[in-house]
Design a protein that fits this description.
156 residues; alpha+beta; Arc Repressor Mutant, subunit A; Dna Ligase, domain 1; three-stranded antiparallel β-sheet; three-stranded mixed β-sheet
Amino acid sequence: MTKEDAKQLVKDAGLRATAPRIAVMQLLARAEKPMSHSEVVEAIGTEDWDQATLYRNLVKLVEADLARVASKVAGVTRYEARGDDDEPHLHPHFSCRTCGEVQCLPEARLEGLVDKRWRKSIANSELEVIGECPDCLAKQRGRRVARRPAAKRKRN
């Protein structure tokens, strides 16, 4: 998303197109995963705007329906951009309780599972799967494998 695209999107939503708001909108639009406030601060930096300004702009973008809260695991709110052609958000998010990573699981769409009567309710709700991501599981397995041979030697 270009700076001009973000500016127009923000204006069309009835908000003032301020520099921090445009920067946050651009960041969320190009992000590959939902981002927390601290990740937004880290990506944008605090040279030009402080943390509170970036947070207020995240909230404003959600209120204007330009972004949505994708996850609230362990008290950490993560945000993602909505698009013009954004279809109902009928997929869950996976949140890793070890590393905190949040990923969309679009291949696990709920659309086929939801009767039409419930579709709008599901589209306006949050579904989150909480567990350990593949990377954390692999690291955990690697530690277990490394420990086993040492434990066997002690017993012999």
